[in-house]
């Protein structure tokens, strides 16, 4: 737990380069909610923020973070993906619930997902592999 706390502290001190480390941490099973920090929402580039929001229910963000996003959108320093203006799809909400039950670390392990009683076509979706790991430069 101390290692994760130290890693998170180091990552949040480098919010300007979040597009480099964020995809790696999320695909490794980091719980996205630990990244719900004002400094990240204020300083990360648009693509890094969008990537983070793909791993959560963006409609349930705490009001202070929504305010930051609204301010950045008004200032044209954040360009949200079009679907962020809508409610998440039911399939996405189900994926989030499965992650909540299993835990993000366990869910991101291929062997665990392959044992779930779901069609094999859903394995990649459950592991968020439909979201590109690399962000555009």
From TrEMBL:
Q: Which Pfam families match?
A: SOCS_box
> InterPro entries per the record?
SOCS_box (IPR001496), SOCS_box-like_dom_sf (IPR036036)
Matching entries from SUPFAM superfamilies are given as: SOCS box-like
What Gene3D superfamilies does the annotation carry?
A: SOCS box (1.10.750.20)
Entry's Gene Ontology BP terms: intracellular signal transduction; protein ubiquitination
Highest taxon in the source lineage: Eukaryota
Q: In which pathway does it act?
A: Protein modification; protein ubiquitination
- Residues forming the SOCS box domain are 90-132
Name of this protein: Ankyrin repeat and SOCS box protein 3
